[in-house]
Amino acid sequence: MTVHILGGGPAGLYTGLQLLKRGFEVKIYERKPDIGLSQHCTGIVSKRTIENYDLPQKLVLNRFKGVSLKISDNLIEVRTSIPKAYRIDRYLFEKELEYRVLNLGGDIILNYHDVSKIRSSSEYIVDATGSISYIKDVKSDFLPSLQLEFHATDSKLYDLFDDETVYLFFDKELNRDFFIWLVKYLDRYIIGSASLQNLHKILRNTLSNWGIRNYNIIARYYGFLIVGGPRRRFYSDRRDSVYVGDSAGQTKPSTGGGLYYISIASRILSKKFSEGELDYSTEFYKILGKEIALQKLARLIFLELDNKEFINLVEIMSRKELLNMLLLYGDMDYHATSMLNLIDKDILKYLFKHPRIISEGIKIISSIF
Ligand SMILES: Cc1cc2nc3c(=O)[nH]c(=O)nc-3n(C[C@H](O)[C@H](O)[C@H](O)COP(=O)(O)OP(=O)(O)OC[C@H]3O[C@@H](n4cnc5c(N)ncnc54)[C@H](O)[C@@H]3O)c2cc1C
Predict the structure, then answer these.
(1) What is the extent of the structural domain holding 160?
(2) What is the predicted pLDDT for the residue at 362?
(3) 7 lines ligand 1 (CB under 6 A)
(4) Residue 169: inside a domain
(5) What's the 48 CA to ligand 1 centre distance in angstroms?
(6) Using 50, 70 and 90 to split pLDDT, how confident is the model at 369?
(7) What is the pLDDT of residues 235-280, one digit of tens each?
(8) Whose CA is nearest to atom 13 of ligand 1?
């Protein structure tokens, strides 16, 4: 049986790999002239994600032992002795998956644009074409994103940022839709965010708030971050397709990270296919449903609070050492569940001042239990 996969990004390639291991024939159709050209992702992942994909160490660029959280003008920094997160080379990551697919006899067709031909001719079609497929159907719950990669021409940058820290800025006056992140690797820096507002201005102003005005932009990466959680069902009768990856909306609602969810979804999908079933939604939600629901709640809290309220909340959490505990011992892939375990009555009392957090929170919590 041949499975036709549209899209040669992480989801298409990793799903192809899993299906090949289960004895399917696999054809992957990528519209770009090469694999690895759709770069819109920072590549920050957990140790678990690296293990799930069984990635060689040479793909790891950063080993993060610290988080620096800047909320408006308040700075919280936490360091650990062992790395809590990693950044992988996204281009080499896709090249590694491509190599493995080809090695197992999979077929990758590049420069492919005639999708309608595949749709009318095949029984098993996997849509792994990324966020646009989700956006076309769902029409909400996404944000345009921009990442700037730059060289330091300002020596101040060397003093401010290091390779072992992830820098996160929360400032609702600068960007009401999402936080801003920055990572450094050797002499290169990446700053990114997602918003319905002017992203160039947001990133420029963030750097300028740090006193950084001289930098040499090497590349700009545009994309879409999905922040509303996955589709309810991953199989569509109407389209006769099975969705995986961003096309299924399989990203973390509070951070937009997708590589961990892809590593799980692709495996469940391939197991279901080998059992002759196309829909794998139930199994996916059994593993990740609770965490995704709690992340939606975390996102709602982010959207509802203004800068002052956010700082107050963080102060309550800091007084109780909760933020440190979260950053030191929390699980990056299940951070909302880690957070839930730390919430106490003072925090609940603070959050419940917001009617929407109460009403939506009750809906979300009752959908889990
Ligand atoms: C700004 C930003 C930062 C991110 N940072 C992180 C991070 O740090 N960590 C993390 O885990 N995740 C991160 N993500 C999420 C991650 O990038 C995605 O979840 C992941 O790339 C999804 O993989 P995919 O294969 O589903 O889609 P894509 O990576 O978008 O790949 C889709 C592929 O399909 C191809 N394609 C599209 N249409 C067609 C068509 N009609 N026919 C054939 N081919 C087609 C495209 O050319 C592309 O190669 C980030 C996302 C954004 C936007």
Answers:
(1) 142-226
(2) 84
(3) yes
(4) yes
(5) 20
(6) low
(7) 988 778 999 999 999 999 999 999 999 999 999 999 999 999 999 9
(8) 257
Reported as half-sphere exposure (CB side, CA atoms, 13 A), residue 355 has a value of 0
Give, using CA atoms, the residue closest to atom 45 of ligand 1. Answer: 7
Q: Which of 287, 308, 330 is the last residue of a domain?
A: 287
Is there a domain that residue 12 lies in? yes
Give the CA radius of gyration of the chain.
Answer: 21
Give the tens place of pLDDT for each residue, 317-355: 877 778 777 777 789 999 999 888 888 888 888 888 888
- Domain count across the chain: 3
Q: Are residue 200 and residue 324 in the same domain, yes or no?
A: no
Query: Same domain for 221 and 246?
Result: no
Residue whose CA lies nearest to ligand 1 atom number 38: 129
Conformational region of residue 345, where left means phi above 0, alpha means psi within -120 to 50, and beta covers everything else: alpha
Decide whether any atom of ligand 1 lies within 6 Å of the 249 Cβ.
no
Mean pLDDT rounded to a whole number for the chain = 92
Is it the case that residue 1 has pLDDT exceeding 80?
yes
Please report, in angstroms and rounded to a whole number, the separation of the first and last CA atoms in the chain: 39
Residue nearest to atom 27 of ligand 1 (CA): 130
Tell me what pLDDT residue 137 has.
Answer: 93
In this prediction the pTM is 0.96
Backbone phi, psi, residue 315, to 5°: -65, -40
**Residue 63 domain-assigned (yes or no):** no
β-strands 215-226, 188-194: how paired? Answer: unpaired
CB of 129 within 6 A of ligand 1: the answer is yes
CB 84, CB 65: distance < 8 Å: yes
Q: Which residue has the higher pLDDT, 363 or 2?
A: 2
Give the distance, in angstroms, between the CA of residue 218 and the centroid of all CA atoms in the same chain.
23
Instruction: Compute the distance from residue 243 Cα to the ligand 1 centre, in Å.
Output: 13
Does 297 lie in the same domain as 280?
Answer: no
- Asked if 299 and 345 sit in the same domain, the reply is yes
Domain for residue 64, yes or no? no
Given 287, 305, 320, which residue is the final one in a domain?
287
Write out 252-309 in H/E/C secondary structure.
Answer: CCCCCCCHHHHHHHHHHHHHHHHCCCCCCHHHHHHHHHHHHHHHHHHHHHHHHCCHHH
Same domain, 23 and 93: yes
